[in-house]
From TrEMBL:
<dbReference type="Pfam" id="PF13185">
    <property type="entry name" value="GAF_2"/>
</dbReference>
<dbReference type="InterPro" id="IPR029016">
    <property type="entry name" value="GAF-like_dom_sf"/>
</dbReference>
<dbReference type="InterPro" id="IPR003018">
    <property type="entry name" value="GAF"/>
</dbReference>
<protein>
    <submittedName>
        <fullName>GAF domain-containing protein</fullName>
    </submittedName>
</protein>
<feature type="domain" description="GAF">
    <location>
        <begin position="26"/>
        <end position="154"/>
    </location>
</feature>
Amino acid sequence: MTSEKNDLLLDAIYKGLNQPTIDWQQTLSDIISYFDCTTGTIHFLDPSTSLLKLQAHKGIPEFLIPKLSLIPIGKGMAGIAAERLKPVEMCNLQTDNSGVARPSAKDTKVEGSIAIPMLLEGRLFGTLGIAKPVPYDFKEDEVSTLLKIGSEISKFVILP
């Protein structure tokens, strides 16, 4: 992807967040495009239940949506990223045996995947996860950009 196209996509992400009503589905689609991924989720934290609630998703098989709708802190990639307040990454989710990804995660057919905590001033607001259909290790600058996007999203998350 050209640097100019990359800049335009990043601008679209930030512009989308500065609308009176945020289209979270479009925001997620823009993030997925920016990182050349096919799949993604945004979960917001419900502090009253300590559950991550699905806000937007793309590329997730419909039969998996009920399993992704509410994620406990500490479970699966998103839950562990939220618990550790650090990114959780897998080069190939399909061959991973660490136990970090839930068994049903393999049904997504993705391989290179990452989940990051959405943090603002050290406070957890949710998680953002993206994935590619091929083995992939996210580069340090990609992880940094993803964390910045997560922090920006956090500014617009209204927690109950």
